Every structure is written in structure tokens, then in C-alpha cells.
Here is the input.
Amino acid sequence: MKDLLSFFETTYGKVLFVIVIAFIAHVLVLFIRKIERIILNRFTKKKPKWNSVRTLGFSIIIFCFYFLAFGYILQILGFSLKAYLATASVIGLAIGFGTQGVIQDVITGITIVLSDLVDVGELVEVNGTTGVVKSINMRFIEIEDQHGTKAFIPNRTISKVVNYPKGYLSCSIDFTMGVKEIANEELFNNLNDIIKSFKEQYPTIFRGSSSLYDDKETSSGKRFARLKLRIWPGRIGMIEGIFKQELLTLLKENNPDFKDWMLAINYEVENNRKSNKKEGGQKG
Here is the structure.
């Protein structure tokens, strides 16, 4: 036993001990991440708020483990552990003046979670980047867009957040129609074919099913049909361009007197309003 203690007091012994401590710390972190995944799958999968707290909380715990392990390693190598823990500037040895930024990131991350500004699983636009929030940790918010591309936005740089509560941008396309056109089953079948074809060709535009209302009427007696699409924010250009032209071509073939102004497109962010709808673009 004395020989073993004497060995750990040698340079080679200290190096070996440092490796063991680093290995144990890493294994503990892997164990913590496994617990995190279990909690995600069993308890917080359908609770965005707790999911956000989980990602931030476990990120802080893992940081503390590595921080303490590094301090203990410094003590083994002859440095003062008390000085390490008491001096905040030591945290910035590797990142220099970035220490202030780290603290800002942590505080901002906690504020974001507690203020309900952003939750994991929500569709948001942060600083011009649109996507689904995958995680909120000590330093970054991780966002994944419709192409699967991931963006990591430092917490302290967040200045503008747009939230899409229903998980999509609502696009309503209204086109004026007469009684004869409303009753034209073939026209609505062709509309459904255009919708289906467009979805197959540009799948990354859509965030949900489409709905087709064929019986809209204003108080003044104006009749129109409404096509509702649920799309990704930022993909308006494709709707205003290719899709709109395909609709206009079909409507003008059906009615030579149909004018461009008779088709209007409107976009809105929906909350929790409910409406009677016909899913899948089917005419009732």
C-alpha cells in the first residue's frame, strides 16, 4: 500500500492518476447523458417547458463535473484548488476575455427558459434563422431548418424571436368563383391534383396538411373558394411564384374571364383558433 502511494507521488504516478480522474469524469458525464435521454423519453417528451429545462439543467451539471474534475487535476499537479475555485478568471484560461460571454450565455439561457420565450420542439425564428428548436444549453440554442441544417445561436446574441405556436405559417389562397364554378367537381379535382403534385415536387415547403373550402361567402354575397396551406416560414417565394401561376392557369382554362386580381394570397401566424375544415384538400 505504501509502495502504491509512493508511486502516485512520482511524476509517472501523477500522470496516471490524472488520466484516471479524467476517465472517471468522462464516464460520469456519459452516465448523466443516459439519464437525460431516459427522462426525455419517459417524462418530458410531451412537455416542451420541462424539455427546455432539462436540456439547460443537464448542460450546467455536465459543465460543473468537468470544471471540478479539472480543478482536482490541477491540485494533483501541485496547483491550489482553493485558488482555482475562488478565482473566476481561471475559467477563462482557454478562452481569454470570453469569460464574460460565457456568463452572459448562461444567464440569458436561463432567462429564455423561465420566460417562456422559446421551448424545445417549437417552430421559431431567432435572429433571422427559422427552424425547430432542438435544444437549449448553456451557450447556444440549436435550431434545425426544413432541410435538416442545424444552426447554433449564442444565447447572448438573441435579439429577435418570432414564435409560431401552431408549428407553421398559415397561407390562405382565395379565388372568386361563381355558382357554376363552385359546383364544378372536375375543377376541384384538378385543384387537388395540383396541390398533390406541388407537395411531391417541393416537400420541404410544407409543415402540415392542406384544406380546401368550397363554400365561402361574404355578407355582400360574394362567393369564393379558399385553399389553406400550412407552410414553412420563409418559403413564401415558391407559393407566390410557381404555385400561384399553376393555379391561375387552371382557373383561366376553366373560366377565360378569370382575372389575376380575383386570386388573393394572405399569410398569418395562427394561435389556438379552431375552425371547421376539410382536411387533405378534399372538396365536400
The beta strands are 123-126, 129-136, 140-144, 150-154, 161-164, 169-176, 211-217, 223-231, 263-268.
